[in-house]
Design brief:
Distance between the termini: 112 Å
Order of helices and strands: EEEEEHHEEEH
Number of helices: 3
Strand content: 15-25%
Radius of gyration: 37 Å
Strand order of the largest sheet: 1-8-4-5
Oligomer: single chain
């Protein structure tokens, strides 16, 4: 079992379900596609039904053991769901999806840096607008500088 980082390609292209971190899937090397164990078990059941004419109950929990015990040249499906060729054991691989946290953390750091830059720019713009608006205003008149009249004391 190989660990694979979660990406945009991590989707079951038959049932259109996105895989999550921790999910286990089957990777078809020839087509660069992922399918779930449930989808593969249904495809195997359909294939056996076509070949023999009888139903065989295969659950998704049986698939890992089924794949592990097969030789490389063993045919899993008589028709690959993507290109209608035979699907051999050597053409598939069991993978486990792991989270892509390192890139997520880097993306968050970039967002924080961009937000800080935007905040600094906005602050600088507001200071520039304040100083420009102060220059265009009419100066305040200070009436406190008038000479005071002297009071005469009465006797």
């Amino acid at each position: 079992m190989r660990n694979v980082k979660l990406s945009n390609n991590a989707e079951n292209f038959i049932s259109y379900e996105k895989f999550k971190a921790g999910d286990v899937a089957v990777y078809i090397k020839r087509n660069n596609q992922y399918i779930s164990f449930e989808t593969l078990s249904k495809l195997i059941q359909i294939d056996i039904l076509k070949l023999t004419g009888s139903k065989v109950p295969i659950t998704s929990s049986h698939i890992p053991l089924y794949l592990k015990n097969l030789r490389e040249k063993a045919v899993i499906l008589s028709e690959n769901p993507y290109n209608r060729q035979k699907l051999y054991r050597k053409d598939i691989e069991i993978v486990k999806f792991i989270s892509n946290t390192k890139t997520n953390i880097n993306k968050l750091r970039e967002k924080v840096k961009n937000a800080e830059k935007a905040y600094k720019l906005a602050k600088m713009r507001s200071k520039a607008l304040e100083s420009a608006s102060k220059k265009t205003r009419r100066p305040n008149v200070n009436n406190n500088n008038k000479p005071k009249t002297k009071r005469v004391k009465s006797k």
